[in-house]
Amino acid sequence: MALLIVFEGVEGSGKTTQTQILRDKLESVNQHAITTREPGGTASGELIRNIILDQEDLTPMSELYLFNAARSLLIEQLVIPQLRKEVHVIMDRFIYSTMAYQSYGREIPLQTVKTINEIASHQVVPDVIVLLDIPPQKALSRRPDPRDRFEREALDFHTKIRDGYLAMAQENPRDWIVIDADLKPDQIAEIVWGKIQPLLNI
Ligand code: TYD
Question: How far is the CA of 38 from the centre of ligand 1 (A)?
């Protein structure tokens, strides 16, 4: 069975690097794997991404719908078909980002976010969620020039996001692995591989 592996964390936590390392590692043991990202990953999803990251007039609810519009498309067009073809799918962000940012961060009630996330994710549930945990001060200092309106948010916003992630991971410790994102990338990759390898039929 192909795996769905999700990486979560605040900006600058190193998710993108880890998704690529894991894909290469899976390929090196002859397992097919792809990486994708949210928001984005499809042609229209990338256009929706540009709106989300750049437009200053969005409200929290309109953000919630836009993230989920892109998500619904990604799940239908890419994630489900790839998993059916026995290709492992590694996602840079998924529904937990929406819970962290739009609920813990933007303060939309958690149940509202969960309901809309659930519809958009078409019953797809990850096998493993990796949280790359780091104090936001440290993560943001890795990116001195904010690239979008989320990175321009105050530290307090990012702290709420981190706390939200930690609360979710604590609630479901069987599904989440929490890794100190201040470790070296190869150390992080080794911890991730230690979790993924036993799940493979090799
Ligand atoms: P991105 O450049 O992908 O961030 P990073 O490289 O740090 O992961 O930008 C995506 C931004 O959108 C990021 O700030 C988190 C935010 N986001 C939400 O607020 N809700 C969501 O559901 C998702 C998927 C992302």
Answer: 7
Residue located nearest, by CA, to atom 10 of ligand 1: 39
DSSP state for residue 107 in the 8-state scheme = -
Instruction: For ligand 1, atom 21, name the residue with the nearest CA.
Output: 98
Confidence of residue 202 (pLDDT cuts 50, 70, 90): confident
Coil vs helix vs strand at 90:
strand
171 burial (CB, 10 Å; 0-12 / 13-18 / 19+) is exposed
Residue 105: its pLDDT value, please?
Answer: 98
E strand or H helix at 179: strand 176-180
Predicted structure pTM score: 0.97
Residue 192 near residue 130, CB atoms below 8 Å: yes
Spacing, Cα 68 to ligand 1 middle (Å):
12
Q: What are phi and psi of 35, to 5 degrees?
A: -115, 150
Can you give the pLDDT at residue 144? 80
pLDDT of residue 171: 98
Q: Residues with beta carbon inside 6 Å of ligand 1?
A: 11, 15-16, 37-39, 67, 93, 97-98, 101-102, 150
